Amino acid sequence: MSDLEKKSIDPATIKMLKKAEADGCETIFDRADAMKPCPIGAEGSCCKQCAMGPCRVPAPKKKEGAAEKAKRMGLCGATAETISARNFARMVAAGTSAHSDHARGVTEVFLAAAKGEVEGFRIQDEQKLYQLAMDFGVEIGDRSIREIAIDVGHKALAEFGRQEGELLFIKRAPLKRQEIWRSLGVIPRGIDREVVELMHRTHMGVDQDYRDLLIAAARCSLADGWGGSMISTELQDVLFGTPVPVLGQINLGVLKKDEVNVVVHGHEPLLPEILVQVVQDHEIQKAAQRVGAKGINLAGMCCSANEILMRHGIPVAGNFLQQELAIVTGAVDAMVVDVQCEMQSLAQVSRCYHTKLITTSPKAKIEGAIHIEFAEQHAHDVAKKILMEAIQNFKNRKPNVEIPSETTDTVVGFSHETINYLLGGIFRASYRPLNDNIINGRIRGIAGVVGCNNARVTHDDPNLTLIKELIKNDVIVLATGCSAITCGKAGLLTPEAAKQYAGAGLASVCETVGIPPVLHMGACVDNSRILMAATAVVKDGGLGDDISDLPAAGAALEWMSEKAIAIGQYFVASGVFTVFGVTWPTTGSEEVTKLLFEEFENTFKGKWAFEPDPMKAAKLMIEHIDKKRKALGIDKARERVLFDMAKRRELEAA
Ligand code: BF8
To answer: Residue 424's pLDDT is what?
Structure first.
């Protein structure tokens, strides 16, 4: 294996890494070689909560006695357990705040759109609005859409600043799950409150009991999954439409040599939605032609890409580790970023080529970028200004443009509602066929494989190897975020992929329903769709009465972001066995790690695991799924199905 092949399994990525090297342009892949992670920080043992430190309290090299252990502490006496739990909890708080601040922005625009105060935004999914109104206790009667939407917007906005009681979406969870949360005292009161309280608890000299800290972290994470993230998903669906299956294309090959290329990168779909409208504007297309381009090509990157891919079929240029490489093609005339997962190095890479890097959020500026601030009141003007910047920049392209040919067809847009319709039909939408196929063993279980890329491991490899192994073993995979883009590039997001990659049982179900073996469910906030799908499976019956009873597991083998830790924590706190790869941030404390990896199973009925090897991770997940099948008494059914398959193959061969 060449050095480049160790960096990525994606041919388009490798081609662009070669080009970057030839062009003398440094990327994250070079920096990953040059700078190793700090070992003390990596294990969660560095405390920088006050100016007497940073204190380093690393894990012992060998088993140490109680006396030696007691000496291992920071200046204030904080133990390895406290330091490790605090650092982990702060990751949860940061991740929750990112998803939830995104949600707040969406809610504000939703409210303005409901009131008719902003151009370009309007309620599109009335059915879902009614559902939300029911969840929020908003009267429907013969009231107008406008009135209902305004009330729903106010209710949603109040969830952030709520000081007491329970978040409204908590009631969506299975009853048994709600009871578990209530008994543990972890039902979030308000989204902001849980983040603020967790930041307070982890301040120097406050909560110094690692168990208590991790319970508080669970409560905060639930304010993400069943709060901020779920509000984002739901209101975005009402505003922009609930995704339904749509064709799309993924990878750097979606960029066009003879068109103005605009790549939209980040997370909040507000500006991207307007760009989708404005890019079709006759005047804009004409302006592009006037500078010698055939037209203007909008493409996405990371989670913004997932949002506009699944609602409009806008092509995706790549996932997290490809953001610099899109610019390396020399064909991106503007890269438009808002919040989260945008590398500061984009400014430097843009300088190697001709790309205009445009920041748009008042919360996220990058030195060296042009700032054109998004404001919903002037959304169309902002979008036009951005597109005109890109058009004017087309003439500045350097001669060394090289766009890799790789691009793959995909079918995306599997919202939880769509899965319902696809399985049950529009008149009797239901998860029944999925439950039946799990019970009869054709589908062994469900896995959510989500999250990032990480420059410390071969790009796309751990997630892809894991997912291929899962579907081969009849486990249907639900994917979001950068992991979903990985699947798209590898051709797993088409119904045809079932025949090629899935086990016979899963393939037969995919063939009957016409779905891929991996369902793209959206961006990272859309992990809330996975919670809803899991809840729908529980409520349909026959597979226990809680999410933790399901033959299901989760994974993020290439995680890197604090958001991923928040997501993992809310999955675990919702009863899911969740495996992370790359590195584990609490190895500095055996006790903290044991609590997360073992003891949580006694309380939350879900737990974490760390396994960087994708084949071993698949084995862990499948073993867990089989354990749950056995507990449900449906393990025998699967044995019969396997026997049937073997018999069928024998007959086919004969
Ligand atoms: O929210 S998967 S690298 S892009 S954090 Fe970021 Fe990770 Fe990608 Fe979207 Ni999610």
So the answer is: 67
Paired with 337 in beta bridges are 265, 359
d(CA 341, CA 306): 14
Split at pLDDT 50, 70, 90, the class of 72 is: confident
Given the DSSP bridges, would you call strands 55-56 and 46-47 parallel, antiparallel or unpaired? Answer: antiparallel
* Pocket lining for ligand 1, CB < 6 angstroms: 267, 302-303, 320, 341, 451-452, 481-482, 523-524, 561, 563-564
Nearest CA to ligand 1 atom 3: 452
Q: 567, 224 in Cβ contact below 8 A?
A: yes
Work out the angle at residue 444's Cα, subtended by the Cα atoms of residues 631 and 601, and round it to the nearest 5 degrees.
45
Q: Using alpha carbons, select from 304, 510, 502, 314 the residue that is nearest to residue 410.
A: 314
Residue whose C-alpha is closest to residue 227's, from 266, 267, 265, 186: 186
Residue-wise pLDDT tens digits, 114-134: 999 998 899 999 999 999 999
Terminal CA-CA length for the chain: 41
Q: What angle do CA 640, 543, 131 make, to 5 degrees?
A: 135
448 Cα: distance to centroid of ligand 1 (angstroms): 15
User: Alpha helix (H) ranges present in 43-137?
Assistant: 66-71, 80-114, 126-136
Angle at 259 between CA 256 and CA 263, to 5 degrees: 70
Residue 551 to residue 577: CA distance in whole angstroms: 10
- DSSP annotation of 376 reads G
Encoding tokens for residue 565?
């830790």
Quick one: tokens of 532? Answer: 């809803």
For 279-313, what is the HEC assignment? CCCHHHHHHHHHCCCCCEEEEEEHHHHHHHHHHHC
Taking a C-beta distance cutoff of 8 angstroms, is the pair 495, 514 a contact? yes
What's the token pair of residue 164? 């007491």
Instruction: Return the number of other C-beta atoms located less than 10 Å from residue 90's C-beta.
Output: 20
Nearest CA to ligand 1 atom 10: 524
Q: Which residues pair with 263 in a beta bridge?
A: 299, 335
Phi-psi region of 171 (alpha: psi -120 to 50; beta: other; left: phi over 0): alpha
pLDDT for the residue numbered 650: 67
Residue 239: name the closest of 120, 125, 85, 330 by CA: 125
Q: What is the pTM of this model?
A: 0.96
Hey, what amino acid is at 424?
G
**Tokens matching residue 470:** 């899962």
- Give Cα 108 to chain centroid, integer Å: 22
Distance 290 CA to ligand 1 centre (A): 37
